[in-house]
Amino acid sequence: MTEPTDGQLFDMPEPRTPVELLLSLSGNYTRHNDALALFRPTHASGPELGAHANSAAQLAHESLAAVKAVQDQQLYASAALIDATVRIKQISYLSSEAARHLAEAQAVVTAASLTNPEHAGPPDGVDRQVRLAQELTALAPEAAVESATGIARETQRRRPAAAGASDGLAAAELSALHAAARGHVVMAQSLGRQYVHSRDGRVRIGTLRSLEGKGLITREPATAPPAYDNGPAQDRIRLTAGGATAVAALLAAPPTTPASATPAVPPVPATSTPARGR
Hints:
This protein has helices spanning 6-9, 18-38, 46-71, 79-115, 126-137, 140-158, 171-181, 205-213, 241-252, and strands spanning 185-190, 193-198, 217-224, 234-239. It is an alpha+beta fold. It has a 4-stranded antiparallel sheet, sandwiched between helices. The longest helix has 37 residues, at 79-115. It is flat, with a radius of gyration of 23 Å. The model is unreliable at 257-278 (pLDDT under 50).
């Protein structure tokens, strides 16, 4: 059973820009989601459920604070900026709903432990409430990074800045940092060997070691859900403050057209077919 603490949930340094604030928010959502995924409620889980509910409520508050930070920039309300802020507000609303489900589960567990203290398992409905809370914030890390991307590009377009901290990093390193920002990268160990698991499958262990040596990522042991049922918890790869700064610079860059978007074979020009004489 895993009980989140305030120190574990919100330990990232104060961000300097709204984009870095959103990257911090993404990391906090990943940490919250990981802790909830590792949590197994029992009849005595009232305090843990309360801690998870408080975590979700705090994330809802942090999401609205991110909206205010964006609004304080007083940028032109373009469609991209409006979409980004609305997306963050949606994250906040979903987090508040997750907090409600967890608080209700806490109330049920607390009441059941008083009336039937000998019962070992959680009361009916608690597992469902926890699962609903998980689903409500499951996509929040990616949504926060997506909003950060739109805001970073809009800010750069309106107020161009010099090249940032992502300069000098290889393409594989930038890709790994972006994946880590979205909560997609974990490490595991089996039979004495270390393995990297990423949703996009493009992150190599050598790349992570390079980024760790540069102080751009850190590894939190046994904080991510296992790769399979009843397996060991995995190590979550997270951005450091320097890593968040590098990703913020990366997000501000204009999107590039992937090579796969280019047709491999050019279209064949249309030719006229002579009509048959009758």
